[in-house]
Amino acid sequence: MKISNRKWWLVINLVVILLSVPSIAMQFTNEVKWSVFDFVIMGILLLGVGLLLELVSRVVKSNGYRVLLFTSILLGFILVWTELAVGVFGTYFAGN
User: Fold this and answer.
1) Region 21-35: what's the mean pLDDT?
2) DSSP states of 12-57 as a string?
């Protein structure tokens, strides 16, 4: 299964748009302080989620399973994101 060029560019453009939000915010406030490493990690996470969602939408035909997998992928992303951002669970990922 090959991802179409149109969908590949859509995922990449969405990742760039989402990553531009903290980049722009850093210009106007000192509350947002992302390093290059933060942008790279978030880019990898967003790209992975986008490609996983595309894969699920292509492979899984049942709407019920598709919704379940989409929800699982998004919840997993949110858990990893919050752990990296504020260390909710106190794992070594958050620097604890």
Assistant:
1) 92
2) HHHHHHHHHHHHHHHHH-SS----HHHHHHHHHHHHHHHHHHHHHH
Domain ranges of the chain: 5-94
pTM across the whole model: 0.82
Residue at token pair 């919050």: 82
The helix/strand/coil state of 3 is coil
**What is the distance of C-alpha 13 from the center of its chain?**
13
The answer to whether 45 and 69 are in contact (CB under 8 A) is: no
Residue 91: phi and psi, rounded to 5, are: -80, 175
